[in-house]
Amino acid sequence: MQAVILDVDGTLVLSNDAHAQSWVDAFEDFGYHIAFEKVRPLIGMGGDQVIPRMVPGLNKEEGDGKKVSERRKELIIQKYGPKLQATPGARQLIQRMKQQGLKLVIASSATSQELEILLKVAKVDDLLDEATTSSDAEASKPEPDIVEAALSKLEVQPNEVVMLGDTPYDVQAASAAGIGMIAVRCGGFEDAQLEGVLEIYDDPADLLAHYDESLLSKK
């Protein structure tokens, strides 16, 4: 194991519910009534994937879809971002991986502005500086573009890297990129939805507690 590709939302920050609510609020602002329960299972996908699934005919690039996307971003940055909390053990796990000499890179469907806020919430903004965001990929998760972009930054082979994530869309993106994944449950998805992962833990603190038995220690 030489490197770890890191998801952020739901993995390092308890933000998945906030993202779902921001979509609900943003759609509502433009006259579209979307239930929280409808959008919550899609969190982990980027806006290019979420918008047409919620309102067929809309897309992120134009018209109301673009307006909804921009409004959602505003809500995360201005309203919900300041209230977010790190997942248990997020900073300590990153520190442990860095001490071991693992290369770390973020692969997130968030925008660079959102990512800046999220890393501060997770208290890892001083530890992580290599990232791929929504602007680095044509399509967001579950497509593999962002993970592949992260892999190219690492300059390691797929069998020397693992992804740490929390959603079925992380699993799909990692798999399509030929990378194994360690999952955490703190994103709110059931184990059955995370089928195919190599290991699964409650949260970063749980992974840290079992670090010496995990794949991460196999350097």
What secondary-structure arrangement, pairings included, does this model have?
Elements: E1 3-6, H1 16-29, H2 36-39, H3 47-54, H4 63-80, H5 90-99, E2 103-107, H6 112-121, E3 131-132, H7 145-154, E4 161-165, H8 168-176, E5 180-184, E6 199-201, H9 204-209
Parallel strand pairs: 1-2, 1-4, 2-3, 4-5, 5-6
Structural description of this entry:
- With about 220 residues, the protein is α/β, with parallel strands linked by helices.
- It has 2 domains: about 5-15 and about 85-215, Rossmann fold (3-Layer(aba) Sandwich); about 15-80, DNA polymerase, domain 1.
- About 40% of the residues lie in helices and about 10% in strands.
- The chain has helices at about 15-30, 35-40, 45-55, 65-80, 90-100, 110-120, 145-155, 170-175, 205-210, and strands at about 5, 105, 130, 160-165, 180-185, 200.
- A 6-stranded parallel beta sheet has the order 3-2-1-4-5-6.
- The radius of gyration is 16 Å and the shape is globular.
- The model has no long low-confidence stretch (mean pLDDT about 95).
